[in-house]
Amino acid sequence: MKTTVELNDNLLAEIKRYAAQNQTTLRAVLESALHNFLRQQTTDAAPFRMRRATFAGAGLQTGIEEGNWSQIRSRIYEEQGG
Q1: DSSP letter for each residue of 19-75
Q2: Total of domains in the chain
């Protein structure tokens, strides 16, 4: 399949030099690079795992109503001058 791709002039010149030095074609270099890139993306990327982050305690501190975000927010910033 034919397609058009715009490349940086310096990059294209470097790829052409590489192809000439290695007695291969521009097409072969680009295909190889793209195959390697795609292979890396699928094999190196480990699935994201959320670390377990639990804390000891019995829930909300005393004096805070459940769901009262203004109370919670003011407690958070209390010691930070807020």
Answers
A1: HHHTT--HHHHHHHHHHHHHHHHHHH-PPP-PPP----S-SSPTT--TT-HHHHHHH
A2: 1
**Residue 69 falls inside a structural domain:** no
Question: Which pair of tokens denotes residue 59?
Answer: 């829930």
Residue 29 sits in which domain range?
A: 9-44
The angle subtended at Cα 14 by Cα 8 and Cα 18, nearest 5°, is 145
The pLDDT profile of the chain, 82 residues, written as one tens digit per residue, is 888 999 999 999 999 999 999 999 999 999 999 999 988 877 666 778 888 887 777 766 777 787 888 888 888 888 776 5
Within a domain: 64: no
31 located within any domain:
yes
Give residue 60's pLDDT: 64
For residue 33, tell me if it sits in a domain: yes
